[in-house]
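User: Design a sequence. Structure:
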């Protein structure tokens, strides 16, 4: 990309791609960031492709999803970065160009666009990502030296637990976790008065059950529901296992220790934190927010009756001690840098953004409950703004260093 028009009104690190070059390169004639210059070439953009299944018949996504993608495209454009959305079937057979969609004059516009420097995988459904054709495509893209792809797949709870459980820096922050089986359930209920039964591949609270000890050899359990929590039992262990086996039949489930979490206004809460790589490729904390469970609920997800609260407000209320709050913040910062680095190394995956569900127990200790490589957006404006800044900064960093694949 080396045919640009000069414009004295542009910042020194920006250039305008002239119309002829724009047509040749399958890019809009617009202003671009000059992110790399040497004797032989000038690199502009970068060009970023967002892989998604939210495009239908050349129409962009609508609702909240559409608003968030538009927000990213507009923010990137102001920084001289060209972003477009594409579905896996939009890639040309020769991998030379991609048919996708972007924002132009405040509306969605389909087009044929240049092969991207960066691909960010935002396929939101595991069953789609696991399809053979999609898996093969992602494998090929990971091998393509022209492109850097990050967050290329979903993570599952078991692999995250296996990656973290033996790491000295974080192993004491991981709840005890076992594969669901009769023997493991019996052993976990001997060690803990309450446990969770969670789908290995689940998210946003779907398919979770909680089991609790009531009296010697008597247990009850409840599932996540959009209405009030209904506890079933009491059951003997044999009857409990029989009922749970029916509920989790033919599915991959785990048993997880239920940590004695702190309460806010007598309700359980946890912390949803987002971590990202910055302009130096270093992991930083973007922000954290609290999710408070509904009355009588044991999950905090908003679709299941939870509500959002400000992190500092809740922590100050629950932990009056300044020293305890300082220790909580230090743990949060440590987790934000350690966990992503461990997962990248142990799982052999390129990551640029993660969200983590964290619990804080009654002593102020943070527990790592879940890690998600396909995070939903935050409603908090300050976190969303930092998210966009970090993400676009990382686009540029990754483009400059993509041959290192890291």
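Assistant: Done.
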């Amino acid at each position: 990309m080396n045919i640009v028009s000069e414009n004295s009104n542009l910042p020194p690190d920006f250039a305008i791609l002239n119309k002829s070059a724009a047509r040749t390169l399958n890019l809009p004639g617009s202003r671009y960031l000059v992110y790399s210059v040497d004797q032989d070439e000038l690199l502009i953009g970068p060009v970023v492709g967002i892989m998604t299944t939210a495009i239908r018949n050349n129409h962009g996504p609508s609702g909240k999803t559409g608003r968030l993608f538009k927000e990213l495209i507009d923010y990137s454009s102001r920084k001289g970065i060209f972003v477009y959305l594409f579905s896996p079937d939009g890639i040309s057979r020769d991998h030379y160009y991609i048919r996708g969609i972007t924002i132009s004059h405040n509306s969605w516009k389909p087009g044929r666009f240049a092969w991207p420097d960066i691909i960010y995988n935002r396929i939101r459904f595991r069953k789609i990502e696991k399809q053979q054709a999609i898996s093969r495509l992602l494998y090929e893209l990971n091998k393509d030296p022209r492109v850097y792809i990050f967050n290329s797949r979903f993570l599952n709870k078991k692999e995250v637990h296996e990656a973290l459980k033996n790491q000295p820096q974080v192993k004491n922050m991981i709840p005890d976790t076992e594969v669901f089986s009769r023997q493991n359930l019996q052993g976990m209920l001997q060690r803990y008065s309450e446990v969770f039964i969670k789908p290995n591949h689940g998210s946003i609270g779907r398919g979770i059950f909680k089991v609790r000890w009531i009296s010697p050899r008597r247990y009850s359990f409840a599932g996540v529901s959009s209405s009030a929590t209904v506890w079933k039992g009491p059951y003997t262990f044999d009857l409990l296992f029989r009922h749970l086996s029916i509920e989790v039949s033919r599915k991959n489930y785990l048993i997880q220790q239920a940590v004695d979490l702190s309460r806010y206004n007598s309700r359980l809460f946890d912390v949803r934190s987002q971590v990202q790589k910055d302009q130096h490729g270093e992991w930083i904390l973007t922000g954290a927010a609290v999710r408070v469970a509904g009355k009588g609920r044991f999950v905090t997800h908003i679709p299941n009756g939870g509500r959002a609260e400000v992190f500092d407000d809740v922590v100050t209320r629950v932990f009056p001690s300044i020293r305890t709050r300082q220790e909580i913040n230090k743990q949060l910062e440590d987790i934000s840098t350690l966990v992503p680095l461990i997962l990248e190394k142990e799982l052999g995956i390129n990551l640029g953004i993660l969200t983590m569900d964290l619990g804080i127990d009654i002593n102020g200790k943070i527990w790592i409950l879940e890690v998600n490589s396909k995070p939903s957006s935050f409603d908090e404006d300050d976190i969303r703004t930092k998210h966009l800044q970090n993400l676009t900064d990382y686009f540029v960093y990754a483009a400059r260093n993509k041959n290192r694949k890291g």
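The chain has three domains: 45-151, 157-173+260-398, 177-257. The mean pLDDT is 91.
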